[in-house]
Amino acid sequence: MKNHIVCLLFLSLLVSCEQKEEIATTNATKKIKVYLLGTFHFAQTDSTYNVLDAKHQQSIEELCDIVVKQKPDKVFIERQPEYEFRNKYDSLFKVYVDTDVLPYRNELYQVGFRVAKRLKHSKVYQCDHPGQYGRYFSAALKYAKEHNQMGYIDASAKGTVLREDDRVDEDSIQKNSSLLDYIKWINSEAVMQTSHASYIVNDPQVGSADYYNYDDDDTLLGAEVTADWYRRNIMIYSKMINQLSYEEDAIFLIIGADHVPILEYLFTANPYFEVIKASSWLSN
After folding, report:
1. CA 16 to chain centre
2. What is the rounded CA–CA span in Å between residue 78 and residue 81?
3. pTM of the full structure
4. In what order do the strands lie in the sheet with 74-77?
5. Residue ranges per domain, the chain?
6. First vs last Cα of the chain: how many Å apart?
7. For the segment 8-65, what is each residue's pLDDT rounded down to a tens digit?
8. Is 146 helix (H, G, I), strand (E, B) or coil?
């Protein structure tokens, strides 16, 4: 009798576990497609590269054509939602929708607004978060200069990674390519992989290794740079997923290229999302 009871309990537990697993699988079956576009900051280029020029405008339109084909339900831009009451992006977007006038060079307008309007969205979504990268990097740079560690900063030391955009003449690529082709290069595997690697390989090696000295405040100076960068991106990711209803089929984010590898990892680790590599959809 006891054996029968044990068997029944075991079978009941097994069925319960299978049901829970089935529920979890079902919940995550519909994956929201995530389109992350790494970009340079359009407004930070010098007078020799004005994105409002006709040739660049044509290229931007071609880029927007590609993004629109992915049919994202929400367009996210690199701005802080906490400052909506100051920036008035909803109002700015409405003005653009009503007038079709887009005088601003920033990629948030040139790409984000264009895509959202063409998809007949009522608004764009903000997701940026402040970081303290400048403060942490300044401290690491100062230490590196004073302690013969600049090899970690310029990637000339052993055990470091040279970024692809430092290995080649990026200015030449930008000026001799269409804006769309330049964006494609920025989102290439070589650029993305090495930019991410520089944060996790090079920066953490800056600082004192005297970890057993309680009074040494110069340990982990470079690691603070990496930690702050990761923290900022985790906050961006959090702001994105918390503005979703989970009824979306796809979402799109345009953001500075260095953010993409970390955000890609976070979304990939989340079973409710499927990251579509920009290097693949930009080529279609």
Report:
1. 39
2. 9
3. 0.88
4. 125-126, 74-77, 250-256, 32-39, 273-275
5. 1-29, 31-284
6. 66
7. 454 555 555 555 554 444 455 789 999 999 999 999 888 789 999 999 999 999 999 9
8. helix
